[in-house]
Amino acid sequence: MGLRTGEQYLDAIKVRNKAEVYVLGKEVKDVTTNPFLKPSILSFKATFDAAWDEDTKDLARVWSPFINDETNRFNHIHRSPDDLAAKVKLLRKISHKVGACFQRCVGFDALNTLYITVELMAQHGKTEPKEKFVEYLKTVQKRDLALAGAMTDAKGVRTLKPHQQPNKDAYVRVTEVTKDGIYVSGAKANITGVAASEEIVVLPTRAMGPEDQDYAVAFSVPTDSEGIKIIVGRQLNDARRLEGGEIDGIPYFYNHEGLVIFDHVFVPMDRVFLLRDWQYTGQLVEIFSAYHRQGYGGCKAGLGDVIIGASYNLAKQAGVEKASHIQEKITEEIFLTETMYAAGIAASLNAVQPCPGCWWVNPMHANVTKHLVTRFPSQISQLSVDIAGGILGTAPSEWDLKNPKLREYIAKYLQGIEGYTAEDRIRMVRLLENVSLGVAFQIESVHGAGSPAAQRIMFTRLYDLSYSEEVAKRLAGMKSEVHFTQKTEPWRETETEKLAKSK
Ligand SMILES: Cc1cc2nc3c(=O)[nH]c(=O)nc-3n(C[C@H](O)[C@H](O)[C@H](O)COP(=O)(O)OP(=O)(O)OC[C@H]3O[C@@H](n4cnc5c(N)ncnc54)[C@H](O)[C@@H]3O)c2cc1C
Description:
The chain is of the alpha+beta class.
């Protein structure tokens, strides 16, 4: 069985009772009923539902040669550029169903990253990681496991390498190796959906040298392994979820991130994919970050669609949807949204194949996609705030609406055009508030998959300035060394492509 329903997923994480999850300082035993986490769980569940819903099942189900059966796309290893584009399309579509981050992409990208990494290691004669990883992959696909991806370390002082840190656990590290497995300690920060996951796939977060070899580790562990503690982060408006309402407190769908503590956690050897293999960490980070940056072209475009729809509806409710400046603003929102999506699709269809059977995104386009995402969501939100009016920050609560003494007044003074009620207006305002000003659209857009500076570093690494300079010199009639080849773009090879070619 390679596919689970959303209900089967919920049943599975309900009994995952060894997991140590903390919310607002208190331990949570059942994440599926906890009011703080429930919206996140429902959002994660949407990735399972996608494989059964008529409108998404063709995108969400995919044949896996590893298990000779269908698997959920979120656990699939890309087999073609079309597969990569299908990822972006599916992410856009699921965003329409939940209006939030559905939290399963980091695990998805971690699987694909490890697949290319162990393949490159095998090409260099180190075959054991590939054998172990393929066995693990089969388990994940057959059981349709919910994975979180944990790459970002606590990192302590940013300018110091792992081994230079005053806190030796600032990056997750191997503390002991036995014949059966390894022990690890440290913490991974900002981990999306981790309390909703069944397994955590852990990757190193930066390129490392030989002196950092204890930190050069990649593995997978069940989320409820002994020694793992998950501290769920706070978000704007989060306490509203505890009010028990149905409008204000985003009781439907949302996402969460967590600080994941690894306190002397045992990892069996068959789940350890990189062990002190510092030579592969640079490529691994390059591969992962490009995969994750491509995906944002789908999910953030999907959230853009929700915001466009909400802006348009609120304009209609206020009777201003035909005003030329409003139409212009909505057109701008469409342009910004479609630009992010176009970049994500380009990163997919112009894919790179660093090894036989490996399909990686186009690294330049993937970095461009994410860099657009660091800017455009805040612009889209700003436009939606303009269109929605001040009510976006001042609307009465649903409790005022439900108070018999106030209900009539709110109905009278908050209604715009006929056909929509004051409650409709408040509902749409709350949706827009939570989607456009929330973590996934504002903060994750900037920092998820690396801060903006990380993409700019990649632009300068990948773009061959000396080639463009020679092109310009030739056209200016100066002495030029330009050598034209069939290659169209002035791009250099990535570290991953170089490693793939080296023997
Ligand atoms: C909502 C959300 C979800 C996320 N989900 C996940 C997830 O599921 N899994 C995961 O692994 N990670 C996840 N991340 C983490 C994300 O990848 C990191 O936030 C990102 O890499 C930035 O790291 P940081 O947050 O530690 O920022 P910092 O490193 O503290 O960056 C702050 C600033 O310092 C700059 N800076 C950092 N280091 C240096 C340096 N050495 N020299 C100069 N400038 C520097 C940065 O460019 C930035 O401007 C998530 C983040 C967010 C916000």
